[in-house]
Each structure stands twice: as structure tokens, then as C-alpha cells.
Amino acid sequence: MGPRILITGATGFIGGRVAATATSSTASATTSATGVVSASAEPAHVRLLARRPPPPRPAAAGEQRGPETETVLGDLRDPDSLRRACEGIDVLIHCASAIGGDAELAHAVNDEGTRSLIDAAVRAGVTRIVALSTASVHGRGPFRAAAPGTLPLAPGSATSRTRAAGERYVMDSGGTVLRPHLVYGTGDRQVMPGLVRLLAALPGPLDGGASLHSLIDVDSLARVLLGAALSPATDPGPYYVDHPEPVPVAELLAAAEDLLTRTPARAGTPRGPAVDVATARGLLAELPFARHHLDMLATDHWFADDRPWRELGCDPGPGFAGGFAAHVAWYRDLLDRS
Questions:
Q1: Domains in the chain, start-ordered, CATH in brackets?
Q2: Distance between CA 91 and CA 129 in Å, rounded?
Q3: The whole model's pTM is what?
Q4: Fewest Cβ atoms nearer than 10 Å: which of 24, 33, 85, 301?
């Protein structure tokens, strides 16, 4: 019998993909083929913690019945619900977080909520804890081929500060923290849509210079979260989880520019000449979100950690050029409706 898994944030962008991967009947075959876990580690039961019931997932043609699954309603701000959710669980995958400008909510969810969750998991006898965090706990770069253990924590926002605090509870319990940089794919309403908003505020394409950035698609990240939770090779402490090949900023911006120019409002409208970062800062001085993106784009944010792919045996996917193509239709539909 396989382990009983609890996944938090099961209706969110990343947590939803982890839940779909864990509950799919093909999960054990996929992970075995890529060496993530042996067939004996197939989950026997998956419990999803959510603040609201997730939408029903239609079965694919020919899909076999997957692991037993249940959804329990709860909130990181409600310790009693967390204690109930952790009862009888072997493995915790913590993906829930509050992201945005509300410092009070971020503290309640990412800091205090994570502490309550980890306390509940430890008391329930959970044997493996894996939590999703972010490389932004290190603040702004430049980071070039940064290896694990080489960077101090220097979070620059309420979200990052409280997620760094939440990390400490996980690692103090002997758990594992995964830190991606930029995550893209179906369901992303921040990374690529944010870049498109930035470009839409400029008269022409952005010349971002020559910086390099770590990215990972949401499906690969979901697989490595599940792999880290189930693999006997997973170590306690932090991992960076990004595709091994960093993405030149020009490639990232070209993908966002293509999305922008294909929106109904922009289709057929010519763009002006390219704008460099210094000029863009002046043009966007009154837009805080744009300044944040510009500062990130202008410097290297490349994190190098091959352990998820070498030691856990996970598949990093095809890289940005191939991986992004699979999500273009979803992004176009999102932008057409916005």
C-alpha cells in the first residue's frame, strides 16, 4: 500500500497541477518511467485541502481509476481544520500561499498558517513534508548560476518575507523546500500576463539586454513536487527547481511580445522601435508593477541545481521554447478575455 498524501492549495495554479498529477491513474506509470519513484510508492490515498471544493475533473478517454481521493475544506488560518486534515496522513505537499500586496494576509497565511500546518503535520506523525516556496526569498539579483547554499535570504516584499518565514518551519521539522524562480503554463496569471501588461505600456518591444533567467513550466514543477514527496533520495532543506537551461531575456520577451501583438486590441497595429530598459524606466515611472518587472528582467536570475533531475530522476521537460508552445493557446484565450 502506498503513502497517504495531503496536498494544500489544491485549487491554485501550482497546487491544482500537483493534485491532478497525484490523482491521475497514469501518475504511477509516469513516475516509474522517469525514475521518480518505484511502483510501490504509488499513493494509496490523496487528500486535497482547499478553501472551496475543486471543480470536477472529467475523466479522459480510456482513463483507469486512480488513487482514492477526497477533498476536505479548510484554511491555513483555521488550525482546527489543519489538525483534521493531517489525521492519518503520511506525506504533506504544501502548495498554498497568499501572493500579493496584502501584508496582513500574507503574514496570516504564509507565516502563521504554515507554522500551524507544520505543527499539525508533526503531531499527526507525517513522515515527509515538502513545501513550495520561491527563489524570491533571496531578493533581487544578479544571480548567475547560483548554487544551493550560496545565497543569503534577502526578501524584498511582504509575500517573500512571509514565505521565507514559512520555509523555516518546514526545514526545522526536517522537511524539504522547493524554490522555483518563474513558473509559466496553463493557469499562470502572473508571470506572462504581467510581462504582456508591461509591454502594452510601452510604444515598442522592450530590449531587455542580455540577462539570463530560470524558468520552469507548471507541469514539470508539479511532477518534481510529487517526486520529491515520494522519492527516498529527497534530502531535507532547500532545492532550486528550474529547467537546467536558463532562458535569455530576449527569448522571454519575444514570447510575451508575440502574445501582446496577437490580442484583438493589438492585432494589425504596428509597434514602434525597440525601447531599452533605461528609457522604459522613465516611461513607466508611475507604474510600480512595471518597475518591479523591469528590475527583475534587467539582471540575471539564474539558479543552478541539478539535484531534482539527477538524484530524484525527474524529467525537466523540453525547455522554454518547446514548453511554452504547449500553453500559447491558453494564454491567448486569457488575454482575449481580459
A1: 4-184+215-244+302-317 (3.40.50.720)
A2: 6
A3: 0.91
A4: 33
